Amino acid sequence: MSSAATKVSQSAPEPASAAPGTAEAAAGTAGRVPGPTKPGPRKPATDYADYSLVSAPRPWRWVGTAVVALGLAAVAWSLATNPRWEWDVVGQWFTAQSVVKGLLETLKLTAISGVLGFVLGFILALMRLSASPLLLSVSWTFSWIFRSTPLLVQMLLWYNLGYLYEKISLGIPFTDIRFFEVQTTTLISQFAAAVLGLTLNQAAYSAEIIRGGILSVDQGQLEAAAALGIPAWRRSTRIVLPQAMRAILPTAFNEIIGLVKGTSIVYVLAYSELFYTVQVIYNRTQQVLPLLLVATLWYVVITSVLSVFQYYIERHYSKGAVRTLPLTPLQKARKFFATHAPVRSLR
Amino acid sequence: MSTATAAPETTRGLVEITKVRKAFGATEVLKGISLTVEPGGVAVIVGPSGSGKSTLLRTINHLEKVDGGFIAIDGELVGYRVRGNRLHELREKDILKQRTEIGMVFQNFNLFPHLTALENVAEAPVVAQGRSKAEARERGLELLDRVGLKDRAGAYPRQLSGGQQQRVAIARALALDPKILLFDEPTSALDPELVNEVLDVIRELAKSGTTLIIVTHEMGFARDVADTVVFMDQGQIVEQGAPKDIFTNPQEERTRSFFSKVIEPAFNI
Is the ipTM of this complex over 0.90? Predict the structure, then answer.
């Protein structure tokens, strides 16, 4: 559309879609255009191709821009000049070995609970959509319980499982045959309790997200696939899931980003992930705010990286759902420098 | 498919529907329908909406399970296996195999939006018939060529017009070399100007020796292409016969009143 706006060569500009400035140009030259009712030979239509365009004045946009810019400058100024932010301390601890180690633990917890949570969530979603009343109600009950108890309570419960059940064993029920038996406290370490708590909680939420995605796919798609003799598993993986992904992804990434920060809750188990590590350090050095800033900045970095992934994965799954794929930021930049004109993606 | 007039072609695709009944809850949609379509025949089912036309079509490839009666294709029961004097319901796998012999074209196309035209056409032959990908692609291009869309093979359904989408859907149904093709109001979702491009493709198919069963509201097309026109109302077949008889000289009052409402505008074309 931008190319149309740079030319004013159309002899009859439509008022609704006219580019800014076109109206002015038309008004200024109205006298030269012969009216349709006047008799006599028509003069050839004026060619406006060589005229330059002047945008309509938009004073309030400038006022708004100025106000916001001023606000941003004030925030930046205070961040830079207020000595209590202690940026030198932030810089000192940002890449300290213990902090990086805590960061890696956070990433590990997120990755493991994220993957396990979504796998379990997928199974729960299928159970929920199944025709068997037992599978359906078990799945419903699971989501109900894990969504209605605070994550903090779940976490402590798993960690203290040894109090409820001293030993965990695998065997044949109602007989004395045991394949193995182990003390609960040795099996449920801090790490295991953390993974267990985060995974089960995550599964309850992702089950609903995945179920919603599957339901959003048109029933006709399944019918068409069945009519073509495509087997059930292939119907799910090739036809339904790729389309469901469009509905699943935005919320799923929300969940994963929530999980990244949710891992900070395992500090109650004294598990040395990022947040706990930072707490340990500031309890020793008393530099509370700078160290909280260190943790915050790392969470921002992780979230930003995830957002980039989200953008490209969503773009991949929008194949066929939009007529033309929107440009990636890179492509936009390239086009900008190629044409020196602001670009808007075509819908 | 182009050698359709060969002798063996005409012996495949006999559809025998016997006393089929189907109810959704308390509503009886099919009240004992019996209909035979000869191999290579073209049956067009017409009737007011809610008369059970689409449901009948969907029972033929077992997308709807019948409550009573049975349907046989070339003497083989759809959805069941005879063992002794019992009918055993077929397992999913066997039903899918039967469906590969019955192509279906839907009113709203139901193309897979995340796959290109060619991928839509080439998917089922690979997974349902175990053909090689290269073979399925080649055959897919051939079929797209046949419906006049070879140059749009790489386009996604949303980049195609309704008429083009429906032609891709027809090519997709043809990819499994079905004995029978079912059309469920194939032009009802199309703009009037796009209807003919789809009907022309179906006209071509009618000459190919594949059995066609078509539910449509296009009376002019029905008169051109059908061997048999079947008029259904309220879950029953009211009347059937050759198009020239049923359109010009309907025997039943209900048939006459239905045609008097729908035919005139359609025949002005």
Answer: no
